[in-house]
Every structure is written in C-alpha cells, then in structure tokens.
Amino acid sequence: MTGGAGFIGANFVLEYLALTENSRVINLDKLTYAGNLSSLAAYSSDPRHIFIKGDIADRALLASLLEEHRPSAVINFAAESHVDRSIHAPEAFVQTNVMGTFNLLESVRVYWQALGEAEAAEFRFLHVSTDEVYGSLTMDEPAFTERHPYAPNSPYSASKAASDHMVRAYHHTYGLPVLTTNCSNNYGPLQFPEKLIPLIIHNALAGKSIPLYGDGENIRDWLYVGDHCSAIRAVLDKGRLGEVYNIGGNYEKSNLDIVHTVCDILDELLPESSHRPHKSLIKFVSDRPGHDRRYAIDPTKIATEIQWQPKETFESGIRKTVTWYLENQSWVEQIVSGEYQNWLAENYGERG
Ligand code: NAD
Ligand code: TYD
Known about the structure:
Layout lengths: L6 H13 L5 E5 L19 E5 L5 H11 L3 E4 L6 H6 L2 H23 L3 H6 L1 E7 L24 H20 L3 E6 L1 E3 L8 H11 L3 E4 L5 E6 H14 L5 E4 L4 E3 H15 L12 E4 L14 H6 L8 H14 L1 H7 L2 H12 L3
The structure holds nicotinamide-adenine-dinucleotide (NAD) and thymidine-5'-diphosphate (TYD).
Thymidine-5'-diphosphate binds next to α7 and β7.
C-alpha cells in the first residue's frame, strides 16, 4: 500500500494487521507533513509491517519493491489531500496525485504483466478516491451515483479526477485488474488537525476561535474512517474488476451542525473547562474560493452488490472521535509542528 502513514492509510494498516494473522503490509509513504510514523507505533517492530520512506513517483524504487515483495494487491492511498492547500499551492497535487498515480500504474502494469497466469488473475490494484470528483450538488439534486458525470472544482478534486481516469484507462487499455472507490468525507482518530473536525477539537481545547467558512451551511456526507476501511477491504475482496464503488453512510450534515455537535460533546465531557460553552468560539470567516456547496453519496451499489454497510452512526462515530482526541493529545501536539504553524498563518491569516 501507499500513503499508509496518513490518516486513512494508518487506520487501514492498524485494522488490517489486527484482523489478519498471516498477511504482510508493505507501506510506501513519502512522509510529507501529513504522514506520521507515530500513528503506526504499535507495529514498528512487527515483521508483518514493512515501512519504506519513498515517493510513489519513483519508478526505480517501485520496481524494486514490487520485485522484492511480490504483492498480491496494491492499494493506493497516497495523495495530497487538503483542498485549502491545493488552492494555495496546486503543483504538489499534480505531482503526486496525477504523476505519482501514473508512475505507480506504469510500475504495477510492468509487474503484473510478468506474473504467471494464476497470480495475474488474483492480482488487484485498488485506487482510493473521493466523492469530490463529482463536483457540487444543489440542495434538491439526488446524491452521487457511480454514473454521475465528473465535474471537479478544486485543484485537489481535479487532480484526483485525473488519477481516476488514468486508472480507468489502464483497465480498458491493458486489462490491469483495477478497482476504484470514491468515498465521502472521513472523520476519526489520527486525522491531521488541518481538516474540519480535528481542527474544531484542537481549537476548542485551546480556547481559540473555530473558523467556519462562509455561512457554515455547506454540506458534507460524513463517514467514520473505520467504515471506509471496512468498505475498502470488502471491495478488494468482492469488487468486480474495472468497477467503481461509491462509499458513504448517508450522514449529510452542514458544517454548522458539525461544529455544534462537537462543541456539545466537549461541553459534556469537559464540565470544568473555562471555554464552555465551546460554541461561543465559533467565528465566521471569509469563504474558501470555489467552495463546493454540497456532497452526498448514494451507496446503493456497494450495499447491494457487496453487502457492505457502515457500522457506526454519526452519533456513535463522532463521540468516539472526540474521546480519542481528548485521550491522545500527545499525538496531536507532536504533529503540530513549525510547518503547521506556518500553514495556519497562511490559510487563516488572510481570512480575517
Ligand atoms: P492524508 O493527507 O492524511 O495522508 C496522505 C498520505 O500520503 C501521507 O502519509 C503522505 O505522507 C503520503 N504521501 C503524499 N504524497 C506522497 C507521495 N508522493 N508518495 C508517497 N506517499 C505520499 O490523506 P487521507 O485523508 O488519509 O486520504 C487518503 C486517501 O483517501 C487520499 O487518496 C484521499 O484523496 C482519499 N480520500 C480522503 C477522504 C478524507 O475525507 N480524508 C475522503 C475520500 C477519499
Ligand atoms: P475539509 O475538512 O477541508 O474537507 P473538504 O473540503 O475536503 O470537504 O472541510 C470540510 C468542510 O468544512 C468544508 O465545507 C470546508 C469547511 N471548513 C471550515 O468551515 N473551516 C475550516 O477551518 C476548515 C478546515 C474547513
């Protein structure tokens, strides 16, 4: 797998190794600001987890890793993933999400074409993508199905869309056995505090303002990260080759609703806090340029074809998440580095 030191990838490694006894994970990650090896500390000396620091665009490294470890599947989590960063500095998104995925596909194609017939038939390349490739919905439009036209609006979603198209092309042109998943917004443990939910918790605990872009009425469809990981395992196991599966849990919420829910849980769990009510910290700030209004996933295909369902409700998942952050403040503190401080100044400084 690639990107296994990031938010979703690390959750995937932790769950996968806990669930399987005889499998090995070869984890290739560049360790950008978003990658954090301490998330994987539980498996740092476990021979089933082999970590390699490197770039998915490095073809020589990929060729040697594929040859040495001979994986039965490659799962591509690695990406630049933050929309706001893609607005400030889009080039890294093209480099990793587009060129990186292309180089990974090329390396995997060469490896797969040299496999024996039985191994080649078993092999899978699973590409982890996002619902943001479909663009923005109005309030009364139906949720995204897999047939919804692509209409990406940010440099992030455009770069992910390009990677999805390349994955599709490798199936149609070369027959590479690919699967693509397009998931809604994730939340849960180990998410970098530049994304909305951990940012709310981080700022609320410090008594800092909680910035809401625009009118706070933008809607996202939220899924607990463990449910995303179980969906990826299910698609890897049962997905039809060349198919796309949308992943979501039918939990559409406005950003304002999310902030209120998290603040209410913090008020309850921290009765002594001097920052209560935490809602008083909400501050409306200038909007994100090109801010998509609404995302919503129609999960009918994965539910009916693969019988996947999320386990967490939003209520249970968000409570688990807030509790995890309260109990793991040291994890947050050690990743909130100098680089992160520069990002805060750059992104929020200009919003007023
Ligand atoms: P993240 O930013 O937390 O982690 C990305 C990881 O990829 C980091 O560990 C980083 O070091 C690594 N990486 C970046 N560039 C790399 C490169 N060139 N080579 C190797 N490793 C590199 O991201 P995430 O939230 O865990 O998202 C993982 C994947 O899931 C991404 O492809 C993203 O588009 C997709 N996705 C995310 C969400 C979400 O809500 N977070 C929703 C749907 C889909
Ligand atoms: P984010 O976590 O960046 O995910 P995405 O943009 O990929 O959906 O943002 C989720 C929503 O929260 C999005 O509508 C933007 C909004 N948002 C804020 O209002 N304030 C913030 O400080 C951040 C980071 C996001």
